[in-house]
Amino acid sequence: MYRTIFPWALVLLVGLLSACDKAAESVATQETLSQVGAVSDVAALDRKLDAALIARGSAIFEKNCAECHGANGKGQPGDWRIRDADGKYPPPPLDDSAHAWHHPTKVLMEAIRDGSPGGEGNMPAWKGKLSEQEMQDTVVYIKSLWSDPVYRLWLQLEQQSLEP
Ligand code: HEC
Question: Does pLDDT of 61 surpass 90?
């Protein structure tokens, strides 16, 4: 029965992703997570994330990113979905609780490399400050923050994004 619930959770997620509203996304995240909770007892996931890269990414994150995204990517106190006085969104958590995991690796890398699109937000561009390898290390670290059910959902999105 668990195996039949999972694809529907994914269909729901993909449908909701097309509506790119931060508040709606967060509600979607909670609903999706409560559904995938049903599959959390399947065999432990082999993520194939390299421990050395996670450790490197963690150190780079602590030094450059934690001031905004919080220790362990848990974000800041307050609601990341409500704009600040400057009209821009606060830094979101990068763990399960927000929507970093809705993005394939390529999009996460773009967010880090280029910062907020068109300077419309407060995410700095790291191109020229961190090497491509260092940015990749932070992405591996961010993936290590996700729970198994969320990682599984992300993996499906990643595979879809790689299809020709
Ligand atoms: C000065 C504060 C600040 C720092 C430092 C910072 N970020 Fe961000 N980051 C943000 C904000 C704000 C956003 C939301 C962007 C927007 O609204 O356009 C964001 C968004 C992101 C996203 C996209 C998240 C999503 O859910 O779509 C990723 C990934 C990310 N940051 C990673 C990093 C990494 C890795 C570093 C360190 C190398 C870093 N950030 C450093 C403020 C910061």
Answer: yes
